[in-house]
């Protein structure tokens, strides 16, 4: 089926805990409106994981050339 | 469907050790994985790469570049050398001895993994090259397995209190004029004229970023113009066709290094893609490109020629409304979505003619690629914001959330941080993973399958043989490459090199009984090579 989503959260084999999703699986069509509803909630969560001192962090990320 | 594979160079950063030598840090990453897997080859910790069949200066247009004319970065047929002085300057000589260096002072630079992949130091980045797979679903699975390999190395380094923690990012630029690649490889018949590949692929590559671009804050190679664009890589392309991968980057790369029987196959090396975390974008990147190659082979690629392709590539990347048009040589002006629809229609027609897309009797993959391709193009054409699992769209939506909540301009450092941290491979820090855990990004492959692919090779290519040799007889395997495995069997005076030049041989179906039967490399090799076990030499 087009757009059929596999929404079952499954444990990753890592040392990290992954948050248990709060919402039941959503159809793709429903996601856009949910995205709007949950945006503040999401930003709050991301505020908590963003590196501190954005300016310095971004400036210090310097790479050498690659392929 | 088609033999293919991915290569990911990870961005590398130790925030607490600014200025740390990038090659040294990359070597630490490889070392960390050797420790995690307790993998030991006969020669020590390292499975040496067999450079015998590397031909980085062969050009698919029919010539070979002189070594003296090549950029040093093109000489990938030589093992990388870590400058001992650089190591000592960055970390001190004493630490070298504690950190897995062998007697010669060289650090671990290469591993061949039990899943058939290669993990190694590529200039200044750790790189994971996935094993060969036969379909886009497996391409996504073993590419994502690379992210778990990278995660394991980051955890291992972080657990060592003597070392600065290292972060790895699955992205393609530092936004300060440096780009590093994520490449794709596709097996093709040698008989297809290279000119057909150039003609057939160029308009496709200009347009496919609308489904598989990873999104980027900043315009221009150094991000000097504020804004957001679709592709991480587009601004770094400066040529239409060429052999280089680090300078004068071309839309069509001509490296002719088949890693297979050279008169039968070519390995098309694609350098224009973004590294994808989004499974939908990654699935479509591999699936649609494979289908377009089938169109080219069948002589049914759309006859389209884009005026000034490099300029068009960047114009498409800079237009997130998807309404900008590119000019065709026949005078028409079309959008990137128009181009994608032309390829979709042609691919759907060919798939119907050949029967590969049949839900029951087809190849089991083309049907899904066509469905997802069509629904994604439809969503992008209706309102790009509704294609929520397309990577650049998902990232843009997050950034727009910040812009609207906090009133940020595109050159605000916090948006730059969101862009960078999107691709942090740690699930607790990587913003893509935050969205994935909230089911805001589509899962196409099972987490359990990805986890299994960290240690298990695909079953239907020669990667099975390579991976199983490493995991079963690791201490006896001294070297390997895409088309060889080299054994140093105890008691035998010389090395045994097993060529694996046919990508679809060495599969589980062909070789599993041998692996089951033999616990020792000597008898295994003897039966494999059709000989009696050689008597140990005096």
From TrEMBL, chain A:
Q: Which GO terms describe its molecular function?
A: proteasome binding; protein tag activity
**Disordered: annotated segments:** 1-41
Any GO BP annotation = protein pupylation
InterPro entries reported in the protein's UniProt record: Ubiquitin-like_Pup
Q: Does the keyword DNA-binding apply?
A: no
In this chain, composition skew of type Polar residues spans 1-11
UniProt modified residues of type Deamidated glutamine: 67
Annotated transmembrane regions:
none
Q: Where is this region: ARC ATPase binding?
A: 24-61
UniProt free text on domains: The N-terminal unstructured half of Pup provides a signal required to initiate unfolding and degradation by the proteasome but is not needed for pupylation, while the C-terminal helical half of Pup interacts with ARC to target proteins to the proteasome.
Give the HAMAP family listed for this entry: Pup
* Family per similarity comment: Belongs to the prokaryotic ubiquitin-like protein family.
Question: Any idea what this protein is called?
Answer: Prokaryotic ubiquitin-like protein Pup
User: Species name for this entry?
Assistant: Paenarthrobacter ureafaciens
Q: What is the lineage of its organism?
A: Bacteria, Bacillati, Actinomycetota, Actinomycetes, Micrococcales
């Amino acid at each position: 089926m087009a757009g059929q989503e596999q929404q079952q959260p499954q444990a990753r084999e890592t040392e990290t805990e992954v948050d248990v999703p709060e919402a039941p699986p959503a159809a793709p069509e429903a996601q856009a409106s949910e995205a709007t509803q949950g945006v503040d909630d999401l930003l709050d969560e991301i505020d908590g994981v963003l590196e501190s001192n954005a300016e310095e962090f971004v400036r210090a990320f310097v790479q050498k050339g690659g392929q | 469907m088609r033999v293919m594979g991915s290569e990911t160079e990870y961005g590398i950063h130790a925030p607490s050790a600014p200025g740390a030598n990038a090659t040294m840090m990359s070597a630490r990453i490889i070392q960390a994985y050797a420790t995690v897997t307790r993998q030991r080859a006969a020669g020590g910790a390292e499975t040496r790469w067999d450079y015998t069949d590397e031909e980085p200066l062969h050009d698919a247009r029919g010539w070979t570049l002189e070594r003296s004319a090549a950029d040093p970065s093109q000489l990938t047929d030589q093992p990388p050398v870590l400058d001992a002085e650089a190591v000592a300057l960055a970390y001190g000589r004493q630490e070298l001895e504690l950190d897995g260096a062998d007697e010669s002072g060289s650090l671990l630079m290469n591993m061949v993994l039990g899943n058939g992949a290669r993990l190694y130091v590529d200039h200044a980045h750790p790189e994971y090259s996935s094993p060969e797979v036969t379909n886009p679903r497996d391409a996504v699975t073993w590419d994502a397995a690379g992210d778990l390999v990278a995660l394991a190395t980051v955890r291992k380094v972080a657990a060592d209190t003597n070392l600065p923690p290292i972060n790895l990012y699955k992205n393609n630029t530092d936004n300060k004029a440096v780009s590093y690649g994520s490449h794709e490889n596709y097996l093709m018949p040698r008989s297809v004229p290279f000119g057909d590949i150039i003609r057939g692929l160029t308009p496709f590559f200009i347009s496919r970023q609308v489904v598989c671009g990873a999104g980027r804050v900043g315009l221009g190679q150094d991000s000097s113009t504020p804004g957001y664009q679709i592709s991480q890589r587009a601004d770094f392309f400066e040529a239409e066709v060429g052999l280089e991968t680090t300078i004068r980057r071309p839309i069509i790369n001509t490296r002719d290094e088949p890693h297979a029987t050279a008169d039968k196959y070519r390995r098309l090396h694609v350098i224009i893609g973004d590294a994808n975390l989004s499974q939908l974008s990654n699935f479509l990147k591999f699936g649609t490109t494979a289908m377009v190659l089938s169109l080219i082979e069948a002589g049914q690629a759309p006859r389209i020629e884009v005026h000034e392709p490099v300029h068009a590539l960047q114009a498409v990347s800079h237009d997130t409304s998807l309404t900008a048009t590119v000019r065709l040589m026949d005078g028409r002006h079309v959008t990137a979505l128009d181009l994608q629809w032309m390829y979709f229609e042609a691919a759907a027609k060919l798939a119907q003619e050949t029967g590969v897309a049949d839900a029951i009797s087809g190849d089991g993959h083309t049907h899904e690629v066509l469905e997802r391709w069509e629904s994604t193009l439809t969503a992008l054409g209706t309102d790009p914001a509704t294609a929520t699992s397309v990577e650049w769209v998902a990232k843009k939506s997050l950034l727009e959330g910040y812009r609207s909540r906090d009133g940020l301009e595109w050159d605000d450092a916090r948006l730059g941080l969101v862009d960078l941290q999107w691709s942090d491979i740690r699930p607790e820090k990587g913003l893509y993973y935050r969205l994935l855990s909230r089911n805001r990004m589509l899962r196409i492959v099972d987490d359990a399958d990805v986890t299994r692919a960290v240690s298990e090779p695909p079953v239907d290519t020669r990667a099975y043989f390579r991976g199983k040799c490493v995991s079963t007889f690791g201490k006896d395997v001294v070297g390997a490459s895409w088309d060889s495995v080299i054994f140093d069997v105890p008691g035998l005076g010389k090395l045994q090199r097993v060529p694996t030049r046919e990508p679809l041989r060495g599969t589980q179906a062909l070789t599993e009984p041998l692996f089951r039967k033999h616990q020792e490399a000597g008898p295994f090799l003897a039966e494999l090579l059709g000989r009696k076990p050689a008597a140990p030499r005096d």
